[in-house]
Specification:
The chain has four helices and two strands. By secondary structure, the chain is mainly alpha-helical. It folds into two domains: 38 residues, no CATH class; 34 residues, no CATH class. The longest helix has 13 residues. It is elongated and about 50 Å long.
Length: 74
């Protein structure tokens, strides 16, 4: 399925197969997963503002507005 999606996205299917078979980026992905967990990210989408404020989940614009106002006030 990933190869089909890569093809639909216009990516090189052979390169995609090679990456999946070799695990070439597995270490980087695991590092990013660990960072996300340490940062408290448990939902998508997740928006990090100024490197330290986290807004998680699909929120309506009003929630973002309220959060940004609180951040600015600090």
């Amino acid at each position: 399925m990933l190869i089909r999606l890569a093809d639909e996205a216009g990516l090189d299917c052979e390169r995609a197969r090679a990456i999946l078979a070799s695990g070439e980026f597995a270490g980087e992905v695991r590092e990013m997963e660990a960072w996300n967990q340490r940062s408290g990210i448990h939902a998508v989408p997740a928006v990090i503002v100024s490197g330290k404020y986290l807004i998680q989940g699909g929120e309506p614009p009003e929630v973002f507005e309220q959060a940004l106002r609180k951040i600015i006030a600090q």
